[in-house]
Amino acid sequence: MEQSLQMTKFEMGGQSSEAGFTLIELLTVIGIVSVLSSLALTSYYYYKSSAAYAVTEIGIHDAQTAFEAGISDPDNLPASFGVTSQSSQGSIQDASASALLPGYRVPRQSRFQVSFDSTCAVGTDSMGYMQLNHCLGDRYVTWERFCDGVTVKLVVEGEGC
Question: What share of the chain is helix, strand, coil (3-state, %, to 5)?
Fold first, then answer.
């Protein structure tokens, strides 16, 4: 008998048939692989989204700490400024925002927005506002401090960057 890569023939009850898989068997395997891969992709998307949210939570907490350090001397508050946005990783590039948030670094693949009003007089006026979006996430975190010292943190469903 010749040895080659061709299928061998088997004799069964006087009939010959080629060894191999039937169409039903192949379709069954393809269906099982499709279901398993869809489960894996769903889990991966959830993992990626959760990791992006964790980076956002840590980043806004670090910004809160830097904010409190920046306003620790009430007689020497940084200058007021409007909304400043930064999408590049690293130290804050705006001079006013950098004075308000000493040592804060914007996380990788994130967009950070901050504003500050040092002249607020009424307790319900906003003194500081920060928002951090991670580009791979589906939620962002907003933090606001009012003149009376009350802080509010919101987690909002929405686009990344």
Answer: 35, 30, 35
Considering the entire predicted model, what is its pTM?
0.74
pLDDT in tens, 36-49: 999 999 999 899 98
Give the C-alpha separation, 129 to 126, whole Å. Answer: 7
Give the integer Cα–Cα distance in Å for 59 and 53.
Answer: 10
Residue 12 confidence (pLDDT): 53
Does position 30 have pLDDT exceeding 90, yes or no?
A: yes
The answer regarding whether domain 19-157 maps to CATH 3.30.700 reads yes
Structure tokens at 151: 């802080």
DSSP for 50-83 reads HHHHHHHHHHHHHHHHHHHHHTS-TTSPPPPEEE
Q: Where are the alpha helices (DSSP H) in 107-156?
A: none
Q: Where are the domains of the chain?
A: 19-157
- Mode of pairing for the β-strands spanning 139-146 and 151-157: antiparallel
Stretch 111-126: mean pLDDT? 87
